[in-house]
Design a protein that fits this description.
This protein has 99 residues and is an all-alpha fold. The protein is 86% helix and 0% strand.
Length: 99
């Protein structure tokens, strides 16, 4: 059973790193929206491609034209925080019970 426990522990660690990377990409995307970067820049395109699937559903829930600012990064960060706490702790808890 220790192999399965190690698998869940590693899966939790990898998921934690992935959420952290996405967290920082969302923050960078929000900061870039304040300075109007060059849309043909490959780094800007990469950040937009990585964060758009996460931000688009929140934009549909709260359109920015109603309040004047885009709050989708805030909701995305809250979701990422929830996922990190819930999923990572669940995977680590499963691995501890299997040892």
């Amino acid at each position: 059973m220790f192999v399965l426990a190690n698998f869940f522990e590693a899966l939790g660690g990898v998921f934690s790193y992935a959420v952290d990377i996405l967290w920082w990409l969302v923050i960078i995307r929000a900061l870039l929206s304040w300075v109007s970067p060059d849309p043909s820049n490959p780094i800007v395109q990469f950040i937009e491609r990585m964060t758009e699937p996460l931000l688009a559903p929140f934009r549909n829930l709260v359109p920015s034209y109603r309040i004047g600012i885009d709050v989708s990064p805030l909701f995305a960060l809250l979701l990422l925080y929830f996922l990190k706490i819930f999923v990572v702790k669940t995977l680590i808890g499963i691995s501890l019970r299997l040892k």
